[in-house]
Design brief:
2-enoyl-CoA Hydratase, Chain A, domain 1, N-(1-d-carboxylethyl)-l-norvaline Dehydrogenase, domain 2, six-stranded mixed sheet, binds (2S,3S)-3-hydroxy-2-methylbutanoyl-COA
């Protein structure tokens, strides 16, 4: 097996090259090859300096995550990096693409770093529930200070070559198309410079104020996660002891995270997200349809948000409404959203104008005739949608994809009113559509393979994470979400206050609870609107105009800043229902509340799997992470159920009288996992 590492001599400079597609992950063979390359350069008297670079699209993008949890082969990355740094000849890192994680740490072990302008460097380990375990938490603060080290390691966001250069992490920005030549020239420039700059020999100044400010600024974002605090502890350790002391602390903190369930969950989700993009029964090389122009029918909240996804990706959108006033309002909201993003520095004003410039508003459906993909985001009513699909069938060009943004209606029925059911698909965006990353791609019974493959491939360029769903009410996410309502209401009737139910969920890590979510969406959504017909607690609230945040009162009372507080009126209404029912009071622990709410969702997930409505359990987890804010450190409902133990889930369901899905029962009895 040839090594992914080769060495090339350029007179007195030895270039060590990695060729390990797709991202030059630092697997065992790469680490061994690097070690051999450095030894060769050090031993050869005619070599005065060395360059490390990578073939393909990026410099090393980190340790090989697929090796985690398996016995380590070859030299440890830290050992290789220490060897690079100990070299008595200068070693220059030549960076392009994204030097991430262990890749960034390799550059820090080098004496110098050069990068092309488009390069990025970062330590995203925290997003895997880890920390830079090969010296990154000790070398970054010694080169660039505590503040930047905290930001890079604990948030995991990469920084540009320019920012890294300004911070001293990169010594020179070189030509975009002349990286190797410029790196060799740089290596010659520094070949005789002594002492060699070694990060481990520098000291990092303590900056307790920066640490406190950083912790405060990120408290909400880091809530529930173990890894950010571990990264902060390691960076702080870089300022209080020797390099060796810091490395020992880094190693200890790294191992604790690696052994924990949070990192297992976050590494699982890294691969689950990428797996979701693959459709098992469609060849990866399926010819895709070209999507150069998109049509959106409906300029409401969803239509506007959907349009923004394509405009931001530079894809022109023709947006259709039935009345000028609604069209103007919709276009105005799109512009306002972009202007707000520009104010936050996300877009330049030029970019805003460019995006608005490829938005074509119209009242005429016929203007969609040249669109390659048409997405309807109109009123959630089957008759209205079928009428529209009938019209689109007569307007759209041959080969155009016709998509519905429906959140639960039957896409097959829409397809069947057209002469081209193979071109019809569901694209269920989550509100706000320009923000939420999840896209449920609903595969109709007759959806053509290339149509599905085209829409799946479109997700990434428009910033979405796509998951394939079959046609069933609520598809994957909402179908599971609907299983929470019953148990929540039962607990209300057993005397558990709404705020207690919600707090159990937010303490679990969900962004909001059942009743907070109802207040946000609107208590009146789906209400029959007859104030005299009061059959449920919800009816009673709606009848009193308690419609949620929009009326400053719903399940909670809200102050002018929309901060919720428990409502005495709601407590009274619940007590009134309770006194009329024969429901006995029941005390619940937080764990029992969580089980009562989430086990039925897992149970529904098992049915979704069994019916083939989702390809994999991990797809279901991707839906919940990206569509509903499930805490990624718990991996998603199906991963979480595995950590709870499926036998415990079954027992909990049976205790609450919930019929157990056959697949869940089978797996629990067989001691298997999803
Ligand atoms: N290890 C193994 N496989 C990886 C990988 C990695 N580090 N990174 C990507 N892949 C696979 C990925 O699964 C996919 O496979 C293919 O490469 C293309 O990836 C000791 C402990 C680099 C920005 O966290 O962020 O270093 O689906 O689809 O959109 O301190 O990949 O084709 O079979 O994402 O162009 C730290 C993770 C590791 C970076 C490219 N590094 N990777 O994005 O392609 S821990 C990371 C990414 C570590 C040290 C610590 C992205 C990318 P397949 P892709 P992309």
């Amino acid at each position: 097996m040839t090594s992914p590492i080769r060495t090339e001599r350029h007179d007195d400079v030895l270039v060590i090259v990695s060729n390990n597609p797709p991202v030059n992950a630092l697997g065992a063979a790469v680490r061994s090859g690097l070690e051999a390359g450095i030894k060769e350069g050090v031993a050869d008297a005619s070599i005065k300096a060395m360059v490390i670079r990578c073939d393909g699209r990026t410099f090393f993008a980190g340790a090989d995550i697929t090796e985690f949890g398996k016995p380590m082969q070859g030299p440890g990355l830290g050992t290789v990096i220490d060897m690079i740094e100990a070299s008595d000849k200068p070693v220059v890192a030549a960076i392009h693409g994204t030097a991430l994680g262990g890749g960034c740490e390799v550059t820090l072990g080098c004496h110098y770093r050069v990068a092309v302008p488009s390069a990025k460097i970062g330590t995203p380990e925290v997003k895997l529930g880890l920390l830079p375990g090969a010296g990154g938490t000790q070398r970054i603060p010694r080169i660039a200070g505590v503040k930047l080290a905290l930001q890079m390691t604990a948030t995991g966001d990469p920084i540009s070559a320019k920012a890294a250069h300004e911070a001293g992490l990169i010594d020179r920005i070189v030509g975009e198309d002349s990286l190797e030549a410029d790196a060799i020239a740089f290596a010659r420039e520094v070949a005789d410079t002594r002492p060699l700059p070694r990060a481990s020999e520098k000291t990092a100044a303590a900056d307790p104020a920066a640490v406190e400010e950083f912790k405060k600024a990120n408290a909400r974002k880091f809530r529930g996660f173990d890894a950010p605090a571990a990264n902060i502890r390691c960076v702080e350790a870089s300022t209080t002891g020797t390099f060796a002391d810091g490395i020992a602390i880094e190693r200890d903190e790294f191992m604790k995270l690696m052994m924990g369930t949070q990192s297992a969950a976050q590494r699982y989700m890294f691969f689950a997200e990428r797996q979701a993009a693959k459709v098992d029964d469609i060849p990866a090389d399926t010819q895709l349809r070209k999507i150069a122009k998109v049509g959106v029918v409906g300029a409401g909240t969803m239509g506007g948000g959907i349009s923004m996804n394509f405009l931001s990706a530079g894809i022109p959108v023709t947006i259709v409404e039935t009345a000028q006033e609604a069209l103007d309002r919709g276009v105005g909201v799109i512009r306002k959203n972009y202007e707000n993003s520009a104010k936050k520095g996300r877009f330049t004003q030029e970019k805003v104008e460019a995006m608005m410039g490829i938005l074509i508003p119209t009242l005429d459906l016929n203007d969609l005739a040249d669109c390659d993909l048409i997405i309807e985001a109109i009123y959630e009513n089957m008759d209205v949608k079928k009428e529209l699909f009938g019209k689109l069938d007569g307007i759209a060009k041959q080969g155009a994809i016709l998509a519905s943004n429906t959140s639960y209606l039957n896409v097959n029925e829409m397809a069947d009113v057209t002469s081209r059911p193979g071109d019809v698909i569901g694209m269920h965006f989550f509100s706000p559509a320009n923000v939420m990353k999840l896209l449920e791609v609903v595969r109709g019974a007759k959806t053509a393979p290339d149509v599905l493959a085209t829409v799946m491939a479109l997700a990434k360029p428009i910033g979405k994470v796509a998951v394939v769903s079959g046609v069933c009410p609520g598809f994957i996410g909402n179908r599971m979400l609907s299983q929470r309502g019953g148990p929540a209401n039962t607990m209300l009737m057993q005397g558990v206050p709404p705020e207690r139910i919600d707090k159990a969920l937010t303490d679990f890590g969900m962004p909001m609870g059942v009743y907070q979510m109802s207040d946000l969406a609107g208590v009146d959504i789906g209400w029959h609107r007859d104030p005299n017909r009061i059959e449920t607690i919800r009816d009673a609230l709606a009848a009193k105009g308690r419609w949620g945040q929009k009326t400053k009162k719903g399940w909670y009372d809200y102050d002018e800043n929309r901060n919720p507080s428990p409502s005495p009126e709601v407590a009274e209404i619940i007590e009134e229902f309770r006194s009329k029912s024969n429901q006995a009071r029941r005390d619940y622990t937080d764990d029992e509340i969580i089980g009562a709410l989430l086990y039925p969702m897992v149970n529904e997930g098992a049915k979704i799997l069994d019916e083939g409505m989702a390809q994999r359990a991990s797809d279901i987890d991707v839906v919940w992470i990206y569509g509903y804010g499930w805490p990624v450190y718990r991996g998603g409902p199906m991963f979480w159920a595995n950590t709870v133990g499926l036998d415990k889930v079954v027992a909990g369901l049976e205790k609450n009288g919930v019929p157990v899905a056959p697949l869940l029962k089978r797996k629990a009895e067989a001691g298997e996992k999803f």
